[in-house]
Specification:
Elements lengths: L1 H15 L2 E7 L3 H14 L4 E7 L6 H9 L4 E7 L1 H13 L5 E4 L4 H4 L6 E4 L5 H11 L6 E6 L1 H17 L3 E6 L5 H14 L7 E3 L9 H13 L5 E3 L14 E5 L1 H17 L4 H4 L1 E2 L4 E6 H6 L11 E4 L2
Parallel strand pairs: 1-2, 1-3, 3-4, 4-5, 5-11, 6-7, 6-8, 8-9, 9-10, 12-13
Antiparallel strand pairs: 10-12
Length: 315
C-alpha cells in the first residue's frame, strides 16, 4: 500500500512539473516562425507550449472565451500589439494571468504601470542600429537624423541620444510633436523640407504607426525618399522591402534568438527565480540585419567584402 502511494505521489509530481503556456498571435508568417521555434525549444523543457493563431478579424470576446477555456494556463505569451491589448483588458476584467509580450511596438508606453505583463522590446536599440550601420554600410557615419513625435517617443529618443554619444555619434532631432490630422501632415511636410538644411549621414525613421500611416507614407515619405541622397534606416525589415523603395538598411530581432530569450524568461518566471515586475522590459539579445541592394546601388554605396549575417533584399 505504501509503495502504491509513493508511486502515485511521484506520478502526480511529474505531471505538476509541466506548466502550460499559451502563445497567442495572428497568422502572419513572422509570428508563426517565432512560435514554431519557441515550441521546439519547449520540447526540451518542462513547459508545455500551446499555440493559438487567431484570424485577423478576431475580437476581444473570442480571445477572452478562449483564455477562460484554458484554466490551467500559467502564463500567456502575446505576439504583437493586438493581443497584448487583449491580455491587458482580460486582466482588468478577470483574475489576472501573467504574460510576456513579444513583437509589439512601444512597450514603454504599452506596459507603463503594468505588474502582470513583462516584455521584450521589438525595436532594436539606437546603439545596435547605429553601430551595425557603421560596421556594415557607413563606416564614417557620425550623425544620425531622426524624425519623430515626442508625444510618443520622447524617452526613447532621449535614451538614443545618450547611446549614440557613447559611441562617438550624434543624434540630430526633428520633432513633429503630437499633431494629428491635417496639422500632422503640415508638420511632417515642414520637417522633411528642413532636412535639406541639416548635416547628417543617414535618416532614422522610428516605428510609429501614426507617422507611418498609409496616407503619410504614400504621399510624403515615399516622394521624399526618391530625392534623398542619404540612406534611410529603420527597425523593421518590411520597410526595407525592395518593392517599397524606402529604407536602405534595417535591423530587427533575430526570431530564433528571440524565441530562445523568451523561453528563458518563461522558465525564470515559472520557476519563481524572477517575477514579472522585476523583469519589466528587456532588450532583444540579437538582431538580424537587412540591406536593400537596389537602394544601396542607387545611393552609390559600396559594401565591405567580409560582411556576415546579412540578409540581402533583392527583386
Amino acid at each position: 500500500m505504501k509503495l502504491l502511494f509513493k508511486l502515485f505521489f511521484v506520478i502526480c509530481i511529474g505531471f505538476q512539473a509541466f506548466s502550460n503556456v499559451l502563445v497567442v498571435s495572428g497568422e502572419q508568417r513572422k509570428f508563426s516562425l517565432f512560435t514554431e521555434k519557441l515550441i521546439e525549444f519547449g520540447k526540451k523543457s518542462t513547459v508545455n507550449y500551446e499555440k493559438k493563431s487567431f484570424s485577423k478579424d478576431t475580437g476581444y470576446k473570442e480571445f477572452e472565451s478562449y483564455v477562460k477555456s484554458k484554466p490551467e494556463t500559467k502564463l500567456i505569451i502575446t505576439v504583437d500589439n493586438k493581443y497584448l491589448s487583449f491580455l491587458k483588458k482580460y486582466n482588468e476584467k478577470n483574475k489576472p494571468v501573467r504574460g510576456i509580450s513579444v513583437l509589439a511596438l512601444n512597450l514603454e508606453e504599452q506596459l507603463k504601470d503594468e505588474t502582470n505583463i513583462a516584455g521584450i522590446r521589438y525595436e532594436p536599440s539606437a546603439f545596435s542600429l547605429f553601430s551595425s550601420l557603421r560596421y556594415n554600410v557607413l563606416p564614417d557615419a557620425k550623425k544620425l537624423l531622426v524624425i519623430y513625435r515626442s508625444s510618443v517617443l520622447k524617452k526613447q529618443i532621449e535614451k538614443a541620444s545618450k547611446e549614440l554619444k557613447f559611441v562617438g555619434g550624434e543624434l540630430v532631432k526633428l520633432d513633429v510633436m503630437s499633431f494629428k490630422g491635417e496639422e500632422l501632415k503640415d508638420k511632417l511636410k515642414m520637417a522633411l523640407k528642413q532636412t535639406s538644411a541639416l548635416e547628417y549621414d543617414a535618416i532614422w525613421v522610428p516605428l510609429d504607426s501614426v507617422l507611418l500611416s498609409p496616407e503619410l507614407f504614400i504621399n510624403q515619405w515615399l516622394p521624399f525618399t526618391q530625392n534623398q541622397e542619404k540612406p534611410i534606416v529603420v527597425q523593421s525589415e518590411s520597410l526595407a522591402d525592395v518593392k517599397l523603395n524606402f529604407a536602405t538598411y534595417a535591423v530587427s530581432p533575430n526570431l530564433f534568438d528571440l524565441a530562445d530569450q523568451t523561453k528563458q524568461l518563461v522558465e525564470l518566471v515559472l520557476s519563481g527565480k524572477s517575477d514579472i515586475k522585476t523583469i519589466g522590459i528587456e532588450e532583444s539579445i540579437s538582431i538580424q540585419k537587412y540591406i536593400n541592394t537596389k537602394m544601396l546601388n542607387d545611393l552609390g554605396i559600396k559594401l565591405r567584402n567580409d560582411l556576415e549575417d546579412i540578409v540581402y533584399l533583392r527583386k
